[in-house]
Amino acid sequence: MFIFKWLNVSVLVFLLSSCGKPTPVLENFDSQKWKNDRQGCQKFRTGMADDLIKQKQKLLSLSEMEIVEVLGKPDQSELSKRHQKFYYYFVQPSAECAPENTNAERLVIRFNAVGLAKEIQIQE
Question: Mind listing the domains of the chain with CATH numbers?
Answer without folding.
Answer: 27-123 (3.30.1450.10)
